[in-house]
Design brief:
The complex is a heterodimer of chains A (855) and B (226). With 855 residues, chain A is an alpha+beta fold. Helices cover 53% and strands 16% of the residues of chain A. Chain A has four domains: 222 residues, no CATH class; 190 residues, no CATH class; 230 residues, no CATH class; 134 residues, no CATH class. Chain A is elongated and about 110 Å long. Chain B is an alpha/beta fold and 226 residues long. Chain B has a single domain, classed as Rossmann fold (3-Layer(aba) Sandwich). In chain B, strands 6-7-8-3-9-10 form a six-stranded mixed beta sheet, with helices on both faces. A four-stranded antiparallel beta sheet of chain B has the order 2-1-4-5, with helices on one face. Classes of the chains: A alpha+beta (855), B alpha/beta (226). Chains A and B meet through α1 and α10 of A and α1, α2 and α3 of B.
C-alpha cells in the first residue's frame, strides 16, 4: 500500500499519546530500574518537607484544641516581689474567679541516702487550673493537696532519679514531707521546663506555715483569673495597661500566649523546612543527573525514532512519561516516608512542647509537600529531556554526529524556574524578602563553591598523578574524567551533605566545649544561694571541714528601679522599642570594696567605698545593659531597696562575661551603704569529682536545709541533653542530605553501570587481572570519597568557624575528631557504594557484553 | 521496473559541506541522481567518498547546502526537520549496518513501530506477516539481544517494509554479517523490494551486492565518477 505523502498517516493526537505511553511501558518493562531509580534521590527531601509540614499542622491543631488550656486561665498576672497593699487592691478589682500561686527555689533532700536536688516549689490557692487539668497519678492527688499539708507532688523525673514512690518521705528545706503523687502535666507548660529545677507542688498552707519562703528569697507570685463570659480579657488588659505597668506586674492572656507560641513554632517549622529543603534541592539535582544519564543512554533510540519519522514531541513524550512516573514514584515514596517520620518528631520534641500533640494525617500538608516536591523535581529533570532536541536522526548513520548545538540556556530554562521556586519557597517560609534572598543566594553560593572546589581538586589531581604512577592509579584517575562523567555532581552532593553535618556537629561541640571549659580547670562548679547572713560563717567552716574552699562570696540585696536618667520608670515603659523586662525586673545587686579580678572596668572609675550618709551613691553598671538603656557615665537612677529610696550615679561601666559560672551582677554598689539592708549571700566552690560534690551537698543540706544548691555539672548535663535533643532534629535533617548524596551516588553508579561494565570487560579482554580491576575500582572510589569528604569537611569547618565565632560568639574549641570521623565515614560509604556496585558483573563472560555494546 | 515508472526520488546538483575548525570540508559536490518507483540503485565508493552523506540527504535526514532534492513528489529543501520526518514516516524504510533495533522491544514490536507511528490498526498483523516472510515466525517475542546478527537484520528488513514505503534506504545492510548470512539478507531485500514495488537505494562495499542493483553510482571524493 504505497499512498502519496500526507495520506498514510491516520494518527490522532489520542493515538499518539497512547503510542508514547505504550513505548514508555515497553521501555520500562525491559529495564524497570533505570528510570524508576532516577526518582529515588528526591525521596528523603520530600519526606522531610511532608514530615515538617504535617508536624506543623498537628501542632497548630493542638494549639487550637488546647487554646484555653495554654494558660489554664483567661489572664495571668505575675510579679517578682511580695505584693504590697496597692497591688492587693488592684488584684481585688480583677473580675471573675481568681487563684494565687507562689513559686520559689529550694532543696529537695532524701534523708535516707542524703541525696539532694534543687527544685522549683509551687503552691496554689484557689481553683487553678480553670481550664484543663493537672495530670497526676493518682488522678485526684492535686485536688487533695490542700487537705494534705504534708503531701508533695513530684515530677516524674524526680521520682525516677531518687527511686521514690507515693508514700515515701523526703525533705524540702527543713520540712518533712510525704510523696502524694506524680505530676505528669501542667496546663500549657512544656515538660522540659523542669529540666534544671524540677517542679514540686505543696499546699499553700504548708508553704506559709513552714517558713520555707524566707525574707529575701527570690519568689515569683502569680495570680490567675477566670473571667465572666461577658468580659474580654484582652480588652480588660488594654483598659488597665497603665496600672499594670505602674504596679510593675506582668500580664499574659490566652491570645498573647497563643500568638507567642504560634510564632515560636512557626519559626521552628520554618527552620526545619529550610534545612529539609536543602535535602530536596540536593535530591532534585540528583534526579536531574540520573535523568541526564538515562536520556544520554537513549540518544540512539531517539535518533532512530526520529529517523523512522517519529514526531519530536512523540519521541520526547516516551521519555517524559518515564520521568513523570519516576518523579511521581519518588514523590509518593517521599510522602509515605514523611508520614512515618511525622510520628517520630513529637517523640523527639514532645518534652519541649506545651501542648499534647495528637499525630494525625494532614492531607493538605502531605498533598502540598508531595506536589511541591514533584514539581520541583520535574524542573530539574526537564533540561536533559529538552536537550534531546539536539539529537539528529543522522546519528543513526553516523555515530557521534551532532547537529548544530542550541544555546545551553535553550533547554535549561527550567533550572531558572527552579531557582525562582527556591526563592519563593524561602520567602513563603520566612515571610521576608531579604532572608529569602540570603537563603537562595547562600544555597547557590554553597553549591557553586563546592562545585568549584571539587573541579579544582580534580584538576590538581589530574596533574598530580604522573605518567610513572602505577597503572591502576592512572586508570582510576582517568575514570573520574570519563566522557559524560558525573564526578563533580557526586562530589558536590556528598560534599554538601558532609559540610552540613560537620557544621552542625562542630557548632554543637563548640557550644558544649565552652560550657565545659567554664566548669573545668579552676572554675567553680557548685553554687550555694539563699544563704542568710548568720549562716555564712558556719557554711564556710563546714566547707573547710569537708576540704572545700568558698571561692567567691557576694552579698545580695534585692531592689527595684524607680527612675532612670531623670525620668520615672512608667515613662520609660511607654517607649515601644524599649526592653520592658529590664526595668520591671527585680535587681539582685551586690556591694563590695574591691572589684574581683574578672570584673573589667571599660569606662569611668570604680569607687569602692563611700560613707553611709553619701547622698548620691557611685555605682558600676554592666555595659550591655547601659547600651540597651542608652545611658552612660554620669547618668543617675533611683532604686527602691526594700522601701528605702537610694539615688545612684553611674561612675563606671564593666564588661561581664555572663557565661562564666561566678556571681555576676548588673549593678555593683560600693561598700558603706547597703550593709544594713536585708540581704542574703551567694557563694561558689569547686568539687573535683562527682563523689566530692555529692558529699558536700549532703553535708550542707543536712546542716542548712534552707540553703539552695545548684550543681553546675547537673546543669551541664541538662544543657547537653537539651542540645542533644534540639541538634538531633537538625542533624537528622542534615543526615537526609548526606543520605541523599549517597542515594545519588548509588543512582549515578547504577545508571553508569553499562558503561562501567563495558570498561571492566574490555580491560578483562585486554588481559587485566581481577585484582587489577579491583584496584582500579578501589582507586576511583577512594579518590572520589576522599575528594568529596575533604571538600565537604573543609567547607563544614570554615562554616562552623564562621557561625561559632561571628554568629554565636563562641571561641573555637572543636577537636579534630568530628572532621576526621566525617572524612573517613564518607570515604567508607563511598567505597562500599562504589565497589559493591562496580564488581557486580565482573564474573560474567566478557564477549557477549562487548558484542552487545550499546544494546 | 520500467522506464515509464514515475521518478520517486531525485537529487539535483546537491552539495554538502561541513565545518572542520576553520576549514570548510566539501563532502559532496554537485551530485545528481534519480530513482524510479521499483528501481534499485547501489551507491559505492571508498570510505569518505560521501556515500552516507548522500543517503542521509536523500532520506531527508540532513539538508544540502546547495541543490534540490525531491522525494515522493515533495521538495525536501527548505522543509523543517519535523516536516521531513512526516515524509520519512510515510514514504521511507531504513536498514542499517548495525541493525539499530530498539533493545527494549521484542522482534514483533520492533517491526511494528513504523506502522504504529502511522496509526495503522493492523500494525501488528503486518509486522507478523513480514516477520513470517523473513523466516522469523518462531522469534516474534524475542528481544534483540536474544537474536543473532542475521536475525536482527531480518527484523530490520521487516521493519523497513511494514509501512509500505516508496523508497527503502539501506546503509551497508550486509556489512556486519558473514558472507552466507549476508547473501540471505540480500536475497530477502531484493525479493521483498521487488514484490512490494519499492525503490531501493543502498550503500555497499560489496561489489556482488552492488551488481544485483539495477544501477550503480560510483562516488569518489564527493563527486560522481562516470
Amino acid at each position: 500500500m504505497s499512498l502519496p505523502a500526507g495520506q498514510k498517516d491516520r494518527t490522532t493526537f489520542r493515538q499518539r499519546l497512547f503510542w508514547s505511553l505504550l513505548m514508555a511501558f515497553r521501555d520500562t518493562r525491559a529495564h524497570p530500574w533505570g528510570f524508576l531509580l532516577a526518582g529515588l534521590p528526591v525521596v528523603l527531601g520530600i519526606a522531610a518537607l511532608v514530615a515538617v509540614e504535617s508536624f506543623r499542622d498537628n501542632m497548630e491543631e493542638a494549639i487550637e484544641r488546647e487554646s484555653r488550656q495554654l494558660l489554664g486561665a483567661d489572664l495571668v498576672l505575675s510579679a517578682r516581689r511580695t505584693p504590697d497593699a496597692e497591688v492587693a487592691a488592684f488584684l481585688e478589682k480583677v473580675p471573675g474567679e481568681g487563684a494565687r500561686e507562689v513559686q520559689f527555689s529550694s532543696m529537695l533532700n532524701i534523708p535516707e541516702s542524703g541525696e539532694s536536688r534543687l527544685v522549683q516549689v509551687r503552691a496554689i490557692e484557689g481553683g487553678f487550673p480553670f481550664y484543663g487539668q493537672m495530670e497526676t497519678v493518682p488522678a485526684e492527688a492535686f485536688a487533695e493537696l490542700p487537705d494534705n499539708p504534708e503531701g508533695v507532688l513530684l515530677e516524674e523525673s524526680l521520682l525516677v532519679q531518687f527511686a521514690l514512690k507515693t508514700g515515701d518521705s523526703l525533705r524540702i528545706g527543713d520540712q518533712e514531707l510525704v510523696v502524694a503523687g506524680n505530676l505528669r502535666r501542667t496546663p500549657g507548660e512544656a515538660g522540659a521546663l523542669g529540666m534544671i529545677a524540677p517542679r514540686v507542688y505543696l499546699s499553700m498552707e504548708k508553704v506559709e506555715a513552714s517558713g520555707l519562703l524566707t525574707t529575701g528569697s527570690v519568689a515569683r507570685h502569680r495570680w490567675t483569673f477566670r473571667f465572666p463570659a461577658d468580659v474580654d480579657p484582652d480588652a480588660w488588659v488594654d483598659a488597665h495597661r497603665e496600672q499594670i505597668d505602674r504596679l510593675q506586674l506582668r500580664s499574659e492572656t490566652v491570645a498573647e500566649r497563643r500568638e507567642a507560641l504560634e510564632e515560636t513554632f512557626q519559626l521552628l517549622g520554618n527552620f526545619l523546612h529550610l534545612v529539609g529543603f536543602a535535602a530536596l534541592l540536593l535530591g532534585a539535582v540528583g534526579v536531574g543527573s540520573a535523568v541526564r544519564v538515562q536520556t544520554e543512554a537513549k540518544r540512539d533510540q531517539m535518533a532512530l525514532l526520529r529517523c523512522l519519522g517519529t514526531r519530536y514531541t512523540d519521541a520526547r513524550r516516551t521519555i517524559l512519561w518515564q520521568i513523570l512516573v519516576s518523579g511521581a514514584g519518588g514523590a509518593l515514596l517521599g510522602g509515605g516516608t514523611g508520614v512515618a517520620l511525622q510520628y517520630l518528631l513529637p517523640l523527639v520534641l514532645g518534652d519541649f512542647l506545651p501542648v499534647a500533640i495528637e499525630v494525625s494525617l494532614a492531607p493538605w500538608a502531605i498533598l502540598g509537600g508531595v506536589s511541591f516536591g514533584f514539581l520541583f523535581t520535574l524542573l530539574f529533570a526537564l533540561p536533559p529531556l529538552l536537550g534531546l532536541r539536539e539529537v539528529s536522526p543522522l546519528e543513526t548513520l553516523r555515530s557521534g554526529f551532532s547537529a548544530d548545538q542550541q544555546s545551553r540556556w535553550a533547554h535549561r530554562w527550567p533550572l531558572g524556574l527552579a531557582v525562582l521556586l527556591v526563592f519563593f519557597f524561602a520567602w513563603w517560609q520566612t515571610g521576608e524578602i531579604l532572608p529569602a534572598l540570603a537563603y537562595t543566594g547562600g544555597l547557590l553560593l554553597a553549591v557553586t563553591i563546592l562545585a568549584l572546589v571539587g573541579k579544582l581538586f580534580l584538576l590538581t589531581l589530574r596533574k598530580a598523578v604522573p605518567y610513572g604512577a602505577p597503572w591502576a592509579w592512572r586508570q582510576a584517575t582517568a575514570n573520574l574524567f570519563r566522557p559524560r562523567n558525573q564526578t563533580t555532581l557526586v562530589l558536590t552532593a556528598i560534599g554538601l551533605g558532609t559540610a552540613l553535618l560537620v557544621l552542625l556537629f562542630l557548632v554543637r561541640e563548640n557550644a558544649l566545649g565552652q560550657i565545659q571549659e567554664e566548669t573545668g580547670g579552676e572554675q567553680a562548679n557548685i553554687a550555694f544561694f539563699d544563704i542568710q547572713p548568720n549562716q555564712l560563717e558556719r557554711l564556710r567552716e563546714l566547707a573547710e571541714r569537708e576540704g572545700f574552699e568558698l571561692m567567691e562570696t557576694a552579698p545580695i540585696v534585692t531592689m527595684r528601679i524607680r527612675s532612670l536618667a531623670g525620668r520615672p520608670v512608667e515613662e520609660w515603659l511607654q517607649r515601644e522599642d524599649f526592653p520592658r523586662w529590664s526595668l520591671q525586673r527585680e535587681f539582685r545587686s551586690t556591694f563590695r570594696a574591691e572589684l574581683a579580678d574578672k570584673d573589667q572596668v571599660v569606662a569611668g572609675e570604680w569607687i569602692g567605698e563611700v560613707s553611709p550618709d553619701e547622698e548620691v551613691i557611685p555605682v558600676s553598671l554592666e555595659k550591655g545593659l547601659a547600651d540597651d538603656w542608652g545611658v552612660g557615665l554620669g547618668d543617675r537612677a533611683v532604686f527602691d531597696v526594700q522601701g528605702v529610696p537610694f539615688e545612684v550615679e553611674i561612675t563606671s561601666l564593666r564588661e561581664v562575661d555572663w557565661r562564666e559560672m561566678r556571681p555576676n551582677f548588673f549593678f555593683i554598689f560600693p561598700s558603706g551603704v547597703l550593709e544594713e539592708a536585708p540581704r542574703f549571700y551567694l557563694t561558689v566552690t569547686r568539687a573535683e569529682t562527682t563523689e566530692d560534690s555529692a558529699r558536700l551537698q549532703r553535708a550542707v543540706t543536712r546542716e542548712f536545709p534552707t540553703i539552695s544548691i545548684l550543681d553546675l555539672s547537673l546543669v551541664l548535663d541538662t544543657i547537653r541533653e537539651i542540645l542533644n535533643r534540639v541538634t538531633f532534629v537538625i542533624q537528622f535533617m542534615a543526615f537526609f542530605t548526606v543520605a541523599t548524596g549517597m542515594v545519588l551516588l548509588f543512582s549515578v553508579i547504577g545508571t553508569e553501570r553499562h558503561q562501567r561494565m563495558r570498561e571492566t570487560h574490555l580491560l578483562r579482554v585486554l588481559g587485566a587481572s581481577r585484582t587489577t580491576i579491583r584496584k582500579v575500582l578501589l582507586g576511583e572510589y577512594i579518590l572520589l570519597g576522599a575528594l568529596s569528604g575533604a571538600t565537604g569537611v573543609g567547607i563544614g569547618i570554615v562554616a562552623a568557624y564562621a557561625v561559632s565565632r561571628w554568629v554565636l560568639d563562641l571561641p573555637w574549641t572543636a577537636s579534630p575528631i568530628v572532621p576526621v570521623s566525617a572524612f573517613f565515614l564518607v570515604l567508607l560509604l563511598t567505597l562500599i557504594a562504589g565497589v559493591t556496585t562496580g564488581t557486580k558483573n565482573m564474573n560474567k563472560p566478557s564477549l557477549p557484553i562487548l558484542r552487545n555494546d550499546g544494546k | 521496473m520500467t522506464t515509464d515508472s514515475p521518478i520517486i526520488l531525485e537529487a539535483r546538483e546537491v552539495s554538502r559541506r561541513y565545518q572542520q575548525g576553520r576549514r570548510s570540508l566539501t563532502v559532496l559536490n554537485k551530485v545528481s541522481l534519480s530513482l524510479r518507483r521499483g528501481e534499485s540503485l547501489a551507491i559505492v565508493g571508498p570510505s569518505g567518498s560521501g556515500k552516507t552523506t548522500l543517503l542521509g540527504l536523500c532520506a531527508g535526514l540532513d539538508l544540502p547546502d546547495e541543490g534540490e532534492i525531491s522525494f515522493a513528489g515533495q521538495a525536501l529543501t527548505g522543509r523543517s526537520e519535523e516536516e521531513r520526518a512526516t515524509i520519512r514516516r510515510e514514504q521511507a524504510g531504513f536498514i542499517f549496518q548495525s541493525f539499530h533495533l530498539l533493545p527494549t522491544l521484542t522482534a514483533l514490536e520492533n517491526a511494528a513501530v513504523p506502522a504504529e507511528l502511522l496509526g495503522w490498526s493492523d500494525a501488528r498483523e503486518r509486522a507478523k506477516n513480514l516477520l513470517r516472510q523473513v523466516g522469523l515466525e518462531e522469534r516474534l517475542q524475542h528481544y534483540p539481544s536474544q537474536l543473532s546478527g542475521g536475525e536482527q537484520q531480518r527484523v530490520a528488513v521487516a521493519r523497513a517494509l511494514v509501512n509500505s514505503p516508496s523508497v527503502l534506504f539501506a546503509d551497508e545492510p550486509t556489512g556486519n554479517l558473514d558472507t552466507q548470512t549476508g547473501e540471505t539478507i540480500a536475497d530477502l531485500l531484493f525479493s521483498l523490494n521487488e514484490s512490494a514495488g519499492t525503490a531501493l537505494i543502498l550503500i555497499t562495499h560489496d561489489e556482488r551486492l552492488a551488481g544485483r542493483a539495477d544501477r550503480v553510482l560510483y562516488l569518489r571524493n564527493g563527486e560522481v565518477q562516470e
